[in-house]
Specification:
single chain, mainly alpha
Length: about 90
């Protein structure tokens, strides 16, 4: 009885699968934008090294790799701590 009242007051809870699917799709878009931004950072770091600013170039390349690889890093941490059932799938590795 309490469950029916709770679902009646909060209809979002009754549609939790749709909410989970929507959040998953939103996270996929964020991952895509982050990957593209990371690639741009790596390329700009290469150009900075070419101009002679080696320190800024190296930091840009390292930062770009971390930004672009963040979903895989987080997925590996989730798997390492026993929660491999995440809603965002980055593939098999």
């Amino acid at each position: 009885m309490k469950t029916k009242l709770l679902l009646f007051k909060f209809p979002v809870l009754a549609q939790s699968y749709q909410l989970q699917y929507g959040l998953s799709q939103a996270l996929n878009v964020v991952m895509l934008v982050g990957f593209l931004f990371g690639v741009v950072c790596v390329i700009s770091g290469g150009f900075a090294i070419r101009r002679g600013d080696a320190d800024a170039g190296k930091m840009s390349i390292i930062g770009g790799l971390i930004i672009a690889g963040a979903p895989v890093i987080v997925k590996a941490l989730f798997a390492a701590f026993g929660n491999s059932n995440s809603t965002v799938d980055v593939g098999n590795f």
